[in-house]
Write a structure and sequence with these properties.
The structure holds 2 protein chains of 2 kinds.
Chain A (H helix, E strand, L loop, with lengths): L17 H5 L1 H16 L23 E3 L14 H5 L5 E7 L12 E9 L8 H5 L5 E3 L14 E2 L1 H11 L49
Antiparallel strand pairs in A: 1-4, 2-3, 3-5
Chain B lengths: L2 E4 L2 E4 L8 H7 L23 E7 L5 E3 L4 E2 L9 E4 L3 H16 L15 H9 L23 E3 L9 H8 L6 E4 L6 E4 L12 H5 L5 E3 L12 E6 L8 E7 L2 E7 L12 H5 L14 E4 L2 E4 L2 H15 L8 E5 L5 H14 L4 E4 L9 E3 L13 E3 L7 H12 L5 H10 L4 E5 L9 H6 L5 E6 L4 H5 L2 E4 L8 E4 L4 E5 L12 H8 L8 H11 L16 E2 L13
Parallel strand pairs in B: 1-6, 16-17, 16-20, 20-21, 21-22
Antiparallel strand pairs in B: 1-2, 3-4, 3-5, 3-6, 7-10, 8-9, 11-12, 12-13, 14-15, 14-22, 18-19, 23-24, 24-25
Helix pairs in contact in B: 2-3, 8-9, 8-13
Classes of the chains: A alpha+beta, B alpha+beta.
Amino acid sequence: MPINPKDIEWVEEPAMNFWESTYLPAVFDGLRTTGQHVADFHPVTEFYPEQKPNLPSHYRGVHRLNRDDKGRVKCVACMMCATACPARCIDIVAQDAPKDDPHWADRDKFPKSFVIDELKCIYCGMCEEACPVDSIELTNIFDLTGMTRQEMMFDKEKLLSVFDQTKDTVGNPIRTHKGKLGHASDFTDLHTLGPATTVRADDRSAKANSAGVIE
Amino acid sequence: MPTVIVNNKPVEIGSSEKLNCIQAAERAGDTIPSYCWHHDLSVVASCRMCLVEVGEKKPDGTIAMQPKLSPGCQTPVKDGTVIVSNSEKVLAAQKATLEYLLLNHPLDCPVCDQAGECGLQDYSYNYGRGYSRLQEPKNIKPDKDYIGDQITLFTDRCIMCTRCVRFTREISGTAEMQVVSRGTHEEIDIFPGEPCNNKLAGNVVDLCPVGALCSKDFLYKQRVWWLKSKNSVCPGCSTGCSITVDQNEDVLYRLKPRENPQAQGSFMCDEGRFGWKYVQSDRRLTTPEQQSAGKTISKDWDVVLSSLTTTLADLSDQKKSGTFVVAISPWATVEEAYLLARFAKDVNPNARLAIGPVRTVGEDDLYPKDIHGRPSLPTKFTIRAEKCPNRRGVEAVLNHFQGEVVPFSSVLQEIDSGSVEALFVLGGDPEGWISDADAAKLDKLKLLVVQDLLASPASGKAHFVLPGAAWAEKEGTFVNHNGLAQAIHRGLRGPEGSRPDGRILFELSGRSGLFHAASLRREIASEIPELAALGVGDLGEFGVSLSSTSKTEPQPVG
């Protein structure tokens, strides 16, 4: 549809006066800004790599796979991270935990292989959020390099070694349930879960402090 | 007609139908949640999930409701039955039931294989509370070490619906599973030393509404939300069980039975359920080949197909009957049999059409079994001795083109006597259709074309090898023992280099366009009176019986 000429408003450039037409005021205005910067010296250049940047604790760098209190990989291979991953860079092969091994007695499933393609990853942190057992976390290691693509495929051992390397460093705390599995596989000491849905105002039993008691 | 009133909606049911409240509500479009009830098993009303308000509309128009809730699965409906499944009282009961079911259920959904298709998850979301008020430790029972070769039991996840117990008692009749102990110690177990290894054992995994019974074959292979399903038909025997093919990224992971009252009911046998591994076999043929005097001339589809066309065109000069034989395996679809039979008759009107070897193993295996392992009546499931999916369909095509069906054994005799010069075999039987001794006879042939799934003694001798597709990788029609024509769909792509058989034969016939099963079905129906029922094109979810003569208008295909 053509534009109605009535809707068009023509704006004319204002005419320049004598001094403006010499361009001198604009030149001096520019020189003034330059002069201010020369006098006011605040360097922003960082001397990387001699001087490491001070990253915030929520910085999203290389992944790590956390260990539980027995030193096993905390991951239960539920593949939630692989499902959530928008870059599809996580590849997990699950295996049932060896039944006769007391070391694995309380576990059903664990990752036989866990590979993250660090080159495909967009470091969005969705895997960290999806993880129900707080196993996968992003560290603030940002300077990862490799000579081949294969080197950048981080497997389970490498991701666990990132955990060993970063667990005690400043800025890389183990964020939740230190050393323990999350709710999902905590059979013996299961916490009462908070309401996942909104509780209706008239549901008095839901708001009770202890079970079976309705105030 | 008796009328049932479900949530203020009147629903008419058949006068001779025996329905319970759950089924009547389904007719009205309402869902009454249930765990223990299954339409093929007996009613126990133990899970209490289907509690509804039931009443009766008196002839004078008044409605009398029963004061307490009744289990919908156990309450039959009749004319004037009133069912209320959405009142405050019912919703509160559903919430309470779910809270009790979840008291001791471990929330290990992340590691549970059922997550994503779990009745407990779905109902908790739809009817449940969303949180637990239990502050005591859960009652966790240890998992069973071994209950069968194909199934595994996570006792802690069980909600004691006893579907598996009733299945082994009523459908397989083998009764391996039982409930042991009482009250809070109640659990499912096998009799000591009597594992659940009957041929229908895999069905208890499908029946289990939670993740207690899992298939060892599928355990931890994939999360179910990654799987993509296509409707298909099990090719394991001539029963033709309706199934779904579940794959992810062109890797087949499992087959599940799909309910089809016309075919097999709700179940399938373990032979079919786990017998598809040849689809991913290393022995799959993946390169087309043209061989001459032990030397490979070409491995390119275009070259092989065009030189095969010219080679076969030379056969048209031989007017002698019986020198060109085409053997079509009962594993081929109706469409492939039709395309090949038609092509052979076009090339040489004297070509002889034979059916490939029809493999039978033992006798029909009827379930349920009695205590001595003998089948008892009424039969609820049959594993047929005829281990091929489409003998009837192929025979119908051969009968039309030639008036008789030549068995493969007589073809072998003719080859041995030297009267056959050229043989085109359309294979597909994964168990192998020819022995080494029989394959030796094929040396006498001047031309041998083998279109098959797996490498066989014959494919080594063939002048032309055409790698075909497995049943899960192609579109087509299988006709089961009962004359039920069901559509199979392309669930996944085959290995690189192989092609769906229908496409190969379509190109070989020199037809223009693309292989399209529904259009071909219509063409077949108009030409072969015995297969006129295929004229509907789209066979739908449940298939079409060949004996149905009703002329249906061809539907547009999308």
